[in-house]
Amino acid sequence: MVSVPVQAGETAAYAIEVEDLAIGYHGKPALSGVTLQVPTNEIFGIIGPANSGKTSFLRAINRMDLMTAGMEVSGSVLVEGRDVRSWRNPYALRQRIGVVFPLPVGLPLSIYDNVALSSRLRGTRKKAELDVIVERCLRRAALWDEVKDRLDSLGSLLSGGQQQRLTIARALSQDPSILLLDEFSIAVDPVTTMRIEEVLSDLKSEMTIVLVTNLVQQAHRLASRTAFFLTGELVEVTETEAMFHGGAQDPRTTAYVEGKFG
Amino acid sequence: MSEVAHAADRRDAAWWIDRVVQILVLAGGLSAIVFIAGIFVFITREGAGFVFDRFDFREFFGSPRWTPTSSHNPTYGALALIAGTASVTGLAMVVSVPFSLGAAIYIGEFATGRVRETLKVLVELLAAIPSVVWGFIGLSIMNPLIIQTFDVPVGLNVLNAGVILGLMAAPIMTTIAEDALKAVPDTYREAAEAMGATRWQVTFKVVLPAARNGLVAATLLGVGRGFGETMAVLMASGHSINLPTSPFDSVRALTATIAAELGETAAGSDHYQALFTLGIFLFLVTFAINFAADVFVRGGQRKRRRRGRRPAASANP
């Protein structure tokens, strides 16, 4: 696969290209031999049972291996046409990639400051500008109506589902080109989950979304293509519709999406 | 150059500030090591002459005769001094461990609201009392009290110094032990309480085991504190060279010996160097105690991490 760095004004066909990716912790392999492409402006689903390497995959994309002792990454991960390990400023890479972890992380700041943090880190000081960003991101994360009257209260005191929406609002405030979601609905009630799913469907016109999920139906609802990970290997990447209607290439995938194991 | 490639490599102000701060904190960390090493080199150099020329292992650790000022036959047996320090510190631990653990458990697990906050502030205030004040209490309150109560001729002895030192170390130990209890996640307590465990069962079966390493570290730091304490021990122990056979014997501590004698020796003399040798010994012992405390805390962390070394767990630290 030959990749040319993206020229200004041009949109790459693939937001993320992964080739022969292998990840290990302290010499123990967690994931190996993964080659796949994530098309730009698409929701890309990743399903698979626990310990299949889904989270490790996400961690390799935004270079979390830099701060994880013992995490080894080999192979190549290209973001916007360039290997992430060749970015001399990894912080710039992370600014372009929003991440939502399974358990909500409301930072111990006010709700407003949680969402304004990323813009402030990048030097935005004007209150009026920040106000706009905060309101827009909270609205998009379907949280605005619940918190608009108490933006000064602590984000870490919100309920679990609210904190997760706050986390999503914070990720959106980075104005990322890629959004990585790691089982975001674990701590969120079904109604809120559905609302966030609607938001994600809208967002894909602006960014590429990688959705790791335990709920195969969530991948079915949202993802145009879905990868199936099993015990540290990529079994296949298939059009989601096909995967869920008997078109999977591997019988293990069919068994998994039909709920026969895992 | 393309726009994306620029962003990937541009080292902006934030990147440079990050670099500078990294170098500054590295310098801070290294300076701590340099100072400790410098102190060690200094006391070793001052004591080296004695250690190499005059030092007699059996005399130093085996003889209770410390008569460095004798003009015809100076002897340098530190056994009595070591025994003095050890007996006072040992008694201090007997006093302070139950007090401080009890106080920490009460403050951390049982007390609530204002009682808890008040107690915490009080304990921290106690920790701030200067050691000379504790020595003063030993001298003027404990001394007559012991003479009266136990009908002994001298009230400045192991019992006095041990109790004073124990009371002195307790607040620090309480604070550290309470921190260790506070570090136990509330979810543990709730999970245990949900099973119908009483407050004490929750504390004893769940919280204390989870905080064990921190509690041991608190105790060891208390021991280190007792070992190195000088002024209070000097004032309350009686400061007479003795191998103690009962708590009512006066003793002399290593630290107190250095403090009392160093000012009266000629720099470079055998006596001066012998005092520095005591210093080296003290340094090594406190170093060993702190090191043990550290290993204990780290050992616990490593065990916990290994238990959680399943792939999913290590992927979500």
Structural overview:
The complex is a heterodimer of chains A (262) and B (317). Chain A is α/β, with parallel strands linked by helices and 262 residues long. Chain A has a single domain (14-257), classed as P-loop containing nucleotide triphosphate hydrolases (Rossmann fold), CATH 3.40.50.300. Chain A is built from 10 helices and 10 strands. Chain A has helices at residues 54-61, 90-96, 111-121, 127-140, 144-147, 160-173, 190-203, 216-222, 240-244, 251-257; strands at 14-25, 28-39, 43-47, 71-79, 82-83, 97-100, 178-182, 208-212, 225-230, 233-239. In chain A, the strands form 2 sheets. Chain A has a 6-stranded mixed beta sheet with strand order 6-7-8-3-9-10, with helices on both faces. A 4-stranded antiparallel beta sheet of chain A has the order 2-1-4-5, covered by helices on one side. In chain A, strand 7 (178-182), helix 7 and strand 8 (208-212) form a beta-alpha-beta unit. In chain A, helix 3 packs parallel to helix 6 (160-173). Chain A is globular, with a radius of gyration of 18 Å. Chain A starts with 13 loop residues before the first strand and ends in a 5-residue tail after the last helix. By secondary structure, chain B is mostly helical. Chain B has 2 domains: 10-67; 78-271 and 279-315, MetI-like fold. Chain B is 76% helix and 1% strand. Chain B has a two-stranded antiparallel ribbon with strand order 1-2. Mean pLDDT of chain B is 87; it is low at 306-317. Classes of the chains: A alpha/beta (262), B mainly alpha (317). Chains A and B meet through helix 1 and helix 2 of A and helix 1, helix 2 and helix 14 of B.
What are the main properties of this structure?
heterodimer; A: 262 residues; alpha/beta; four-stranded antiparallel β-sheet; globular; B: 317 residues; mainly alpha; MetI-like fold; 2 domains; 14 helices; disordered C terminus
